[in-house]
Amino acid sequence: GALVRLFRVLSKGWIMETAGEERVRTVQNLCRLEDAGILLKQASTCDPVTKISTDFPKEVSAILNELTTLSSRDDAERLLETGVSMWNSVINLEALCDASQKEALVKVRHVAADCIYMSITVLSGVSARFNIDEISLLKFYTACGQKYVSELADMDMAAVCFSKASEFRKSAQAAAAETEGGKRAFAKALFD
C-alpha cells in the first residue's frame, strides 16, 4: 500500500493524502507556473504587446501558494528558473505597457520574487543555474516594495516587501563582512 501521511486538518475532520498524490500536485503546479512564465515571456516579445489579465497575478499567486513542498533540487531549480523568467519578462513588459497594466505587473513581480525566494530556500542558497544570494534577494524585495509605493501607493504591500528585504539585509550584511569584495557588493546593493 501507499504510504499515507497526515496532510492537513480541516474543520470538517482529517484529510489523508498519499505522498504520491502530493507529488503529482506539486508537479502540476510547477508546470502551471512554468506555463505562466512562458506566457509572460511571449507577451513581452509580442508586437504589439499582449496585455495580461488583471486576474493573472492573483492566479499565479494562488498556484504558488498551493506549492506546499518542493521535494527535489530539480523542482527547486525549475521554480527558480520560472521566477527569474517572470522577473525578466515583467521588466521587459514595464517598458512596453501602458498604465493600465502597471498594477498587474507590480504584483507579478512580487510573485516572481516569492518564487525565487522559495526555491533558493530549498536549494540552501546554491543553484546550479543561477548565482542568487541574500544580496540578490534583498534587491528583489526592495525593488518590489519600491514599485508598490511609487506605482500603486500600496503601503501595506510595500511594508511586506521591505520587511522581507530587511531579513535578507541582516544575513547579507553578515556574509558580506567576511570579504572586502562582499562589503562593496553589499554597499552597492543598499544604494542601487
Task: Provide an overview of this structure.
The chain is mainly alpha-helical and 192 residues long. Helices cover 71% and strands 7% of the residues. It is built from 7 helices and 2 strands. It has a two-stranded antiparallel ribbon with strand order 1-2. Strand 1 and strand 2 form a beta hairpin. Helix 4 packs antiparallel against helix 5, helix 5 (134-152) runs antiparallel to helix 6 and helix 5 (134-152) packs parallel to helix 7 (180-191). The longest helix is centred in the first third of the chain and has 27 residues, at 19-45. The N and C termini lie far apart (55 Å). Residues 1-17 have low confidence and may be disordered.
Overall pLDDT confidence: 82
Ranges where pLDDT stays below 50 over 5 or more residues in a row are 1-17
Shape: globular
Structural class: mainly alpha
Concise structural overview:
The protein is mainly alpha-helical and 192 residues long. It is 71% helix and 7% strand.
Topology, element by element:
Blueprint: E1 4-10, E2 13-18, H1 19-45, H2 56-66, H3 73-96, H4 102-122, H5 134-152, H6 155-176, H7 180-191
Antiparallel strand pairs: 1-2
Helix pairs in contact: 1-2, 1-3, 2-4, 3-4, 4-5, 5-6, 5-7, 6-7
